Amino acid sequence: GSTCDQDQASIQELTLQMQMNHLITVSVNDFRGVDHEVHFVAKLLSWAPALEEVRIEWKGEMDRSMVITKLLALPRVSPRAKIIVT
């Protein structure tokens, strides 16, 4: 059972990754800077080779500069990808 579940999860992740090949811009609203949101942006940056812009609308109460530093340090598959926090 668990090997089948792992295979299914891998297939779903690969399918999602393939669908991101043409993603150019992303807007994330009400961003609070919590770990799962940062992880989501990390996935986008690592999966979208055509990505040019991730626009984040900050609504967090956490230390904004610390979260932005984390975001800017994330590896990107697209050399043109930039992160804009408003």
Strand content: 15-25%
Question: Distance between the terminal alpha carbons, to the nearest Å?
Answer: 45 Å
- Can you tell me the overall shape? globular
Side by side, the strands of the main sheet go 1-2-3
Helix amount: 40-55%
Radius of gyration: 14 Å
Mean pLDDT: 89
- pLDDT below 50 for ≥5 consecutive residues: which ranges? none
Structure classification: alpha/beta
Largest sheet: 3 strands, parallel
Number of domains: 1
Organism: Aegilops tauschii subsp. strangulata
Protein name: FBD domain-containing protein
Q: What is this structure, in a nutshell?
A:
This protein is an alpha/beta fold.
Features:
86 residues, alpha/beta, globular, FBD domain-containing protein
Explain this structure.
It comes from Aegilops tauschii subsp. strangulata (Goatgrass). This is FBD domain-containing protein. With 86 residues, the chain is α/β, with parallel strands linked by helices. It has one domain. Helices cover 47% and strands 20% of the residues. It is built from 3 helices and 3 strands; from the N terminus they run αβαβαβ. Strands 1-2-3 form a 3-stranded parallel β-sheet, covered by helices on one side. α3 links the parallel β2 (53-58) and β3. It starts with a helix and ends with a strand. The mean pLDDT is 89.
